[in-house]
Design brief:
The structure holds two protein chains of two kinds. Chain A is built from three helices and no strands. Helices cover 73% and strands 0% of the residues of chain A. Chain A has one domain. Chain A is an all-alpha fold. Chain B is an alpha+beta fold. Helices cover 25% and strands 26% of the residues of chain B. Chain B has two helices and eleven strands, in the order ααβββββββββββ. A four-stranded antiparallel sheet of chain B has the order 2-3-4-9, with no helix packed on it. The C terminus of chain B is likely disordered. Classes of the chains: A mainly alpha, B alpha+beta. At the A-B interface, helix 2 and helix 3 of A face helix 2 of B.
C-alpha cells in the first residue's frame, strides 16, 4: 500500500511547500542575475529579471492567499 | 497589518511557541521572503531604466587618448609616448607590412625601456638583451619570460587612439 493511501492528506499538502519554495528559489536566482548585470554595467539586461522577480512575488502572493484559505494547519 | 505580520513572525520563532511552526506559518514566512525579494527588485528595475536613459553619462564609450596621426609614422618606424600617465612609457610601432601595435615599454624582466630594432624586427631590451616579437609582444629570447603588455588601439579619422584604462597582457589584432 502506498504512502498516499496510508496518509491521504500528506500528498495534497506537500505541493504548496514545493511550489512556494520553487518560486522563492527562482526569485533569488533572477535577483542575483539582475544585481550582477547592474554591477557589470549591462543596464539593458537588468530590467527583465527584476520585473520577473516582482512578477513571481505576485504569483507567490496569489498562491499564498489561495493556500491560506484552504490549509487547515 | 504590520503588527499582525510581526506577531506571527515572533510566534513562529519563539522557542516556547515552537510547536506552532506549522505549515501555514512556514508558508507565511516563505511568502514574506518572496515579497521582500519582489520589493528589492523594484529599485533595481528603476535604476536600470534610469541608467539606460542616461546612457553615455553612466556608461561612457571609451573615447581613447590620441597618440599620433597615422600618416606621421612611416612603415617600420616607432614612436615613444607615455600612456596612460606621464610615468608609463609606451611604444607605438607601424609594422613593416602595415598595421599599428603599441606596447608598454617596460621590459617584463627588470623594467628597462625596450627599443624598436627595425633591422631585426624585434623590440629589444638593451639592459640584458631581451628580445620581443613586434607583432605579439611575446619574448623570443633573453631573460624576459612574460610578454609585453599590449595597448588596444583604434584609428579614427586618421588619428591613432590608445583605448581602455591601461595596457593589457593579451594580444590584439592591432588597428
Amino acid at each position: 500500500m502506498g504512502r498516499s493511501a496510508q496518509h491521504p492528506r500528506a500528498t495534497p499538502y506537500l505541493w504548496p511547500l514545493v511550489a512556494m519554495g520553487t518560486l522563492l528559489a527562482l526569485q533569488v536566482v533572477l535577483l542575483q542575475v539582475a544585481v550582477n548585470r547592474l554591477a557589470w554595467g549591462m543596464y539593458a539586461g537588468v530590467f527583465a529579471p527584476a520585473v520577473a522577480t516582482a512578477g513571481l512575488s505576485i504569483a507567490a502572493w496569489l498562491l499564498y492567499r489561495q493556500l491560506d484559505r484552504e490549509t487547515v494547519n | 497589518m504590520l503588527r499582525q505580520v510581526y506577531r506571527r513572525m515572533v510566534t513562529v520563532i519563539h522557542r516556547d511557541e515552537e510547536h506552532r511552526l506549522n505549515r501555514r506559518a512556514f508558508l507565511h514566512i516563505m511568502f514574506l521572503g518572496s515579497a521582500a525579494l519582489g520589493l528589492a527588485s523594484v529599485p533595481l528595475a528603476t535604476l536600470a531604466r534610469w541608467a539606460q536613459r542616461s546612457g553615455p553619462k553612466l556608461a561612457p564609450e571609451p573615447a581613447g587618448t590620441p597618440i599620433a596621426r597615422a600618416d606621421a609614422l612611416a612603415r617600420g618606424e616607432s614612436l615613444n609616448f607615455n600612456w596612460p600617465t606621464e610615468n608609463d612609457p609606451a611604444v607605438l610601432l607601424h609594422l613593416p607590412e602595415g598595421g599599428f601595435v603599441a606596447y608598454d615599454r617596460r621590459c617584463t624582466h627588470l623594467l628597462c625601456p625596450v627599443l624598436w630594432d627595425a633591422r631585426m624586427d624585434h623590440l629589444v631590451c638593451p639592459c640584458h638583451d631581451g628580445h620581443f616579437n613586434a607583432r605579439t609582444g611575446v619574448p623570443l629570447y633573453g631573460p624576459p619570460r612574460r610578454p609585453l603588455p599590449q595597448i588596444d588601439l583604434a584609428v579614427r579619422n586618421g588619428v591613432i587612439y590608445a583605448l581602455g584604462a591601461g595596457p593589457r597582457g593579451v594580444k590584439t589584432d592591432g588597428a
